[in-house]
C-alpha cells in the first residue's frame, strides 16, 4: 500500500450497467474517494454455473478505477454461495442450535466447514487471485464478509464429526474430557468421543464446559478457513490480506488476525453511542501492532434494512468519526455503501448516492470527510499514535465464557464498552488490547470481566506489577478454570494468594442490599461479586450493608515496585460510576500515568508522536456539544503554525484541532 490515508467505499458494479458504472466513478472522484472495495457478494456473477468462472468484469472495473486514481480492495465472495452450490444439498447448509437448516438466500447460509464448500471456495479464490492478483491499483484483499455476523456455530452432521475430532485432539482420551468437564454431574459422562453431541436442544441446559468449548471450536474453525483463503491469495498476489470483522461477531479476533496482514472492522454505532465507535479504533489498532487498521465499513448517514432504519447521523458527525479514526491509527475510513441498493433486503440503508444516482444526505458527509482527510494527511503520515500507558484487556474468549454464562444479562461487549467509556471520559489515553499483548511501557493494566486468566497471562501481569505497574483485577475475573468450571482451591484460584486476599463468599449481589464504601463515597454493589478478608493486602473498599458487612470488595497489595488491586464487585448506578472513576483516577496517579488530559467529556484527545519525537494532539469533539482541553505553554497550531495560548482551548461542535506541544527541555 502506498503512503496515503484512504477514503473509501464498498461498491457493487455487478449490479449496474455500463452507464451507471461510469457515472459512479466520476462521482467518486468528485467526492475524493481513493479506494473502492468490490466483489464481496458477487459469486453468482463470477461463476453463474459450476466451473464457469469469469472475473473479467472486475478486471475491467479495476482498470477503469486505476485510470482515475482510485485503488481497489478485492474481496473473495464466499459469504454468498450461489444456488447451484446449495440447491438439493441440505447437507451443505448451516444448521443453527435448534436444529433448523438454513435455506438458500440472504448470506452465510452455508456451513463454512462443509468439504464441498471449502473446495469450491478455494477454486473461486484461486481464480480471482490468479487473474487479478497483480493488477495495477490492487492494494489489498478482503476475505469473505463479516464472518459469523448472522450465524454462530454450525450444528450440522459434518460439524459434529469435526467437533468430536477437535475434542479428541484437545483431550486425548474420553476419560480426560469427562474429568475436565466434571461430566459425572447429572450422569453426563461419555464412553467415546463419537457420543459427544452438539450443545443443541435439551430439557434444561448443557454444561458450561461443553458450551464454551463448542464456541471455541467454531471460532477456531472459521479462523482456519480464513487461513486457507489467505494462503491461496498469497500464491498469486503480494497485496496484504485482511477481513472485515467486528466485536459483535462470533469470532476470536485475536486468532483471526494472527495470520492476516492487517486488521479491519465494521461498526454502525450511533452518534449518541460514540464510545462504542471509538473502542473499536483503540482495539483493532492493537491486533496488528505497527500496522494501521482499516475502518472497512460504516454508514455515511444511517444503517438500515427492510426491518427498519436508524436515525441518520447529525451533520458533521461522520467527519468527526473519520478524524478520530485517522488520529487513532486508521489508514482508511470507508462507507457501506456507495450507491443505494435498488433491490434486496438493505434498500433503506444509508449510501452516498441514491439508487437513481443523485446525492443523498450522506454526500455532504463524504465531502466533509474528504476535507478532513486532505487536511490531516500530511501530519498523520509523519507521526504514529502514542503507545498508551493504560491497557484495557479485551478478550473474545472471555466473551465466549460470558455468552455461556451471562448471569442475569451480563453482556460482555456492553460491560467492556462501559469500562472503556469511563477511561475515555476521564481523558486517559488507552489501548484496548488482546490477551497476548506485550506489557512493556505500560503503567496501568485493567482486566475486568475476564472469567478465566491463564497461567501465561498471570506470569506476564505479575512481572509487569513487580516492575512498578498497577494491575486492577476484576470484577468477575479469575473465577473460572480454562474448562469453564468453578475453581476448587479458592474462589479466584491463584489470584487470591498473589493479591494477598482470601475470598470468603462469591454470590449474586443484585437485590441483596449490598452497599460498598470506598474513596469517601458509597454505592450499591451488583452483578456477581466476590468479597474478601485480607491476608497481606490493604482494604480500600468495604461492604457497609447487605449480607456480608465488614468484608472487603476492593483491596490493594504491594508486589515488588507495583500494586495488585482486586475489585471483587461492581459498583452500580450513578454513585457506582463516580466510585469507579475515583478508583481509576487514584490508581492512574499511583501508576504514574501521564498520558491523560482534562478534555471535557465528549471531546477526544488522540496523542501522536512525530518522527522527530515531537508530540501532536489531535482533538476531536464527538458529542456535538463542543468542548475544551487545557493546552500547555509553548503549543502551536500544527495546521497553521500559529502559537496557541496556554490554557483552555475550545473545539467546536464535531470539529477537530491539531496542536504540536513544545519539546521538553
Can you summarize this structure?
This protein is an alpha/beta fold and 665 residues long.
Work out the helix count. 17
Q: What is the CATH architecture term of the largest domain? A: Alpha-Beta Barrel
Helix content: 25-40%
**CATH hierarchy class name of the largest domain:** Alpha Beta
How many domain modules?
3
Structural category: alpha/beta
Mean of residue pLDDT values: 97
Number of strands: 30
What gross morphology would you assign?
globular
CATH topology of the largest domain: TIM Barrel
Ends apart, CA distance between termini = 37 Å
Query: Can you tell me the CATH superfamily of the largest domain?
Result: Glycosidases
* Low-confidence runs: none
Main beta-sheet annotation = 10 strands, mixed
What value does the Rg take, in angstroms?
Answer: 26 Å
- Beta-strand content bin: 15-25%
Strand neighbour order, sheet with most strands: 14-13-15-16-23-22-21-18-19-24
InterPro entries: Beta_galactosidase_C (IPR013739), Beta_galactosidase_Trimer (IPR013738), Class_I_gatase-like (IPR029062), GH (IPR017853), Glyco_hydro_42 (IPR003476), Glyco_hydro_42_N (IPR013529)
GO molecular function: beta-galactosidase activity; metal ion binding
Protein name: Beta-galactosidase
Binding site for substrate: 107, 145
